[in-house]
Amino acid sequence: MNITILGAGAMGSLFGGLLAQSGQQVTLLDINDGHLAAIRSDGLLLATDSGERRITGLHACRPEQATGHPDLLLVFTKTLHTDSALRSVAGHIAGHTLVLTLQNGLGNAEALSRHVAPQQVLIGMTNWPADMVGPGQVHSHGQGMVRVLAPGSRERNASQEVAAVLDAAGLNCAVDPQVWTSIWEKVAFNAALNSLCAVTGCTVGQLDAAPEGVALARSIVLEVVAVARSQGIELDAQGCLDSVAFAIAHHRTHKPSMLQDVLAGRPTEIGSINGQVLERARQAGVPVPHTETLLGLLRLIETVSYTHLRAHETPEH
Ligand code: NAD
Predict the structure, then answer these.
(1) How much of the chain is in helix, strand and coil states, percent to nearest 5?
(2) Residue 204, pLDDT above cutoff 90
(3) Alpha-carbon dihedral 156, 161, 163, 169, rounded to 10 degrees
(4) Secondary structure (3-state) at 120
(5) Which of 5, 136, 148, 316 is the most buried (most CB within 10 A)?
(6) Ligand 1 pocket: which of 32, 76, 83, 276 to mutate (most atoms within 8 A of CB)
(7) What is the mean pLDDT of the chain?
């Protein structure tokens, strides 16, 4: 399969690297010139639980330099960059190109549908972890899986073919008619832990330093479960609460990406997580006071980028 990865950061590089290793023809598109240059000169250095290897033969360039028309375009930008990234590859996408999003949050299918026909859109969820450790270097430790579905297509061949290709690359992928449940369960997890850590500066494990931290996380999870139910999606509430409790107990030093973004002064994915939950909650008349408060606090933090705190650290001239 001829595959383009749009947004070749941590996840895009992991997926692109494994797909290339399994024999697919892969192009990585990104706007991080240092990362692209490192991949072009030395290949992608990928470390997973099965060891470290250097993957060569990847074509890596900026979106506007993409040539040809891929069979599959996999979107792995942060959600706030989806629209601009897809606009920049409009000429690269043909009528036969399937476009798959495995990004976190809600509203991703709608975002793709603004650029391609509904029958080209594939949605999904992945819980593979990945981190960029430097230009051309990605780590992914732990196991994960991918679940995909073609929501707008009556025939399932498209999603089955894509799932088979991802599975053959070792990504543990299957078509899942219940994919919305997996997507919402991950939203419940992220809406609680990502936003709480980003607002407080706590690692995941530090959330149990005070009982209020765990109580807040549980409240947000239950709000998302209620909103999902209003959309006709029944989540396993206890399962969601258990996942959050497990992460607090066992992933103690983990800094969720939203906290990393705040610390780096970058905008976060709060809009497609807590923001999208709030939007659906309002439409359905479901109260989500904790989700809304966290969203408001994070918007404020994004706006001031902690400059009021950093000002005290800057020596006066
Ligand atoms: P990342 O920041 O490492 O990668 C995003 C990449 O997109 C960056 O390299 C950036 O330069 C690139 N980009 C930004 N604008 C672009 C544009 N206009 N055109 C092309 N490229 C552009 O992020 P990530 O951690 O790989 O996450 C990607 C998505 O996957 C997010 O939605 C995230 O929530 C989700 N996700 C991440 C993980 C994880 O463990 N990292 C796991 C599951 C899902």
Answers:
(1) 55, 15, 30
(2) yes
(3) 180
(4) helix
(5) 5
(6) 76
(7) 95
CB-CB contact of 277 with 223 (8 Å)? yes
Q: Which atom of ligand 1 is nearest to the CA of 132?
A: 3
The closest of 156, 131, 126, 153 to 141, measured between CA atoms, is 131
311 confidence band (pLDDT: 50, 70, 90): low
**Which ligand 1 atom lies nearest to the CA of residue 13?**
26
Strand pairing category for 51-55 and 44-48: antiparallel
Distance CA 124, CA 171 (A): 13
Residue 79 tokens read as 């959600």
Compute, in angstroms, the gap from residue 103 CA to the centroid of ligand 1.
Answer: 8
**Ligand 1 pocket, residues with Cβ under 6 angstroms:** 6-12, 29-32, 63, 76-79, 81, 84-85, 88, 103-104, 126, 129-130, 132, 257, 269
Ligand 1: centre distance to CA 158 (Å): 24
Question: Which residue's CA is the nearest one to ligand 1's atom 8?
Answer: 9
CA distance readout (Å), 4 to 20, 136, 207 = 11, 17, 39
Residue in the structure block whose two tokens are 């360039």: 61
- Give the Å distance between the CA of 11 and the centre of ligand 1: 6
**CA of residue 271 relative to chain centroid, distance:** 13
**Computed over its alpha carbons, how large is the radius of gyration of the chain?**
20
Answer for the pair 270, 218: CB distance below 8 angstroms, yes or no. no
Say how far apart CA 185 and CA 244 lie, in whole Å: 11
